[in-house]
Amino acid sequence: MKFLLKVVVSCFIILLLVGTISYNFLEGWSYVDSLYFTTMILTTIGHPSLYPTTDVSKIFTVFFSIIGIIVAIFSISIVSAAYFEHRSRTMRGRTKRKKR
After folding, report:
1. Residue 45 gets which letter from DSSP?
2. Res 96: pLDDT
3. What is the mean pLDDT of each run of 10 residues along the chain (100 residues)?
């Protein structure tokens, strides 16, 4: 399970880097603005202060946001599974101690 958590974190960091570099290149935004917009896309918050202006960056945003949502859903499922597995082990340990 720890391996999957590392994979999830790595995927999210890679998405942040790809988005930041891509928007810097496609839109000519600073790295800070590109990171800001990438974070807004990946968290599905959205904010009208920045938006893609070229057709290429609009198409990139569509696919990037879909991939981001898929990674987010996968991440939530992995973290949830790890939490419930840990909780289940803890509860089994308490039950065994009570039976003694």
Report:
1. -
2. 66
3. 82 93 97 95 85 96 93 85 86 68
User: Which residue range forms the structural domain that includes residue 83?
Assistant: 2-99
In one-letter notation, the amino acid at residue 53 is T
The whole-angstrom separation of Cα 95 and Cα 82 is 20
Please count the structural domains in the chain.
1
Going through 1-100 in order, the beta strands assigned E by DSSP cover none
Using alpha carbons, select from 36, 46, 43 the residue that is nearest to residue 68.
43
Is the Cα dihedral 29, 30, 33, 39 positive or negative?
Answer: positive
> Which pLDDT value is given to residue 62?
95
Exposed, middle or buried, 37 (CB in 10 Å: 0-12/13-18/19+)?
buried
Tokens of 59: 């198409």
* Other Cβ atoms closer than 10 A to 8: 19
**Which CATH number do you get for residue 47?**
1.10.287.70
pTM: 0.77
